[in-house]
Amino acid sequence: SLPTRVRIVEVGPRDGLQNEASVSTSDKIELINQLAAAGHSYIESGAFVSPKWVPQMADSAEVFAGIDRQANVTYAALTPNLKGYESAKLANVSEVAIFGAASEAFSQKNINCSIAESLARFEPVMAAAKRDGIKVRGYVSCVVGCPYQGEVAPSEVARVAKALLDMGCYEISLGDTIGVGTPKTVMAMLDAVSAVVPVEKLAVHFHDTYGQALSNIYVALNRGISVIDSAVAGLGGCPYAAGASGNVATEDVVYLLNGLDISHGVDLNALAAAGRFITDKLGKQPSSKVGLALQAKCST
Ligand code: HMG
Ligand code: MG
């Protein structure tokens, strides 16, 4: 049955902007403030990764220093290793996320190590976060397919998800990084993962590359999954996954949830305005169908 409430994890300022040419630090800060004002309770606001690998996130410390923090909002960041974790802590992040993959090839391209090495590298991050009382979210990328190695076995996704859970992550976000999943492959993957990780601890992270994200989200909701990652205006992609177009647009997710009478706390009009703010800065249209429809409605 469907959940009555969903927590939306807004990843636009990170997953979205990590793949965009150049957005000023002050525009990033303004975007995050607008997203909080629209009612978001969880905003992934940056990444403490190597600036050589992802230059777009090099100003994350300045971003965290500049945002107007709201007491009820979690401002999170990606931390691939202890160095990133220490920087994130100095920046006073609310919580951090570690990110592994279910595909060996993607793990190498994205974080320059094998899956096993990545899990070992996360151990000291987990230990430090536990000591500091900072919660850690875990991502598994390429849960349906990999841009370098093709199909990914559901059993591999389950194995990595379970490892992150056992390590102490409070939630595991399952990422269809290149958006190739359909309800059939997503259900097979969720069957395997939910056999080893309770659904209350799962989140889904779909990219809309092939236009399947909302169908896949509906499948996940019907499985009782109540945490959905999305990006305002459908921003983003992944620098290490060619052709990975944007994340599912938050506006589209909100419209779906509104239609299903599932509460989430986000105001659609304020959210769409934040989407227009950032896409204006990027000189492009929102890739959200709902965002575009609302825009057309406003101008008629
Ligand atoms: P490496 O080159 O193997 O690392 O990269 P290293 O330890 O050998 O260090 C190399 C240099 O980077 C050194 O600097 C380090 O100090 C520096 P140098 O001595 O050469 O001047 N360095 C750092 N600097 C700042 N912050 C750090 C850091 N670590 C090392 N944390 C590494 C390994 C993991 C660092 C690198 O591969 C990396 O940063 N990768 C991040 C890639 C990334 O951010 N990808 C996008 C996010 S994942 C994603 O989008 C998928 C997701 O959305 C889910 C989905 O869609 O499915 C989550
Ligand atoms: Mg992503």
Automatic annotation (TrEMBL):
Pathway membership: Metabolic intermediate metabolism; (S)-3-hydroxy-3-methylglutaryl-CoA degradation; acetoacetate from (S)-3-hydroxy-3-methylglutaryl-CoA: step 1/1
Matching InterPro entries: Aldolase_TIM (IPR013785), HMGL (IPR043594), PYR_CT (IPR000891)
Enzyme class name: lyase
Domain of life of the source: Bacteria
Database matches in Pfam families: HMGL-like (PF00682)
EC number, UniProt record: 4.1.3.4
A GO term for molecular function: hydroxymethylglutaryl-CoA lyase activity
Gene Ontology biological-process annotations: ketone body biosynthetic process; L-leucine catabolic process
UniProt keywords, alphabetically: Lyase, Metal-binding
SUPFAM superfamilies: Aldolase
Residue ranges constituting the Pyruvate carboxyltransferase domain according to the UniProt record: 6-272
Family named by the database record: Belongs to the HMG-CoA lyase family.
Protein name (database record): hydroxymethylglutaryl-CoA lyase
Organism annotation: Rheinheimera salexigens
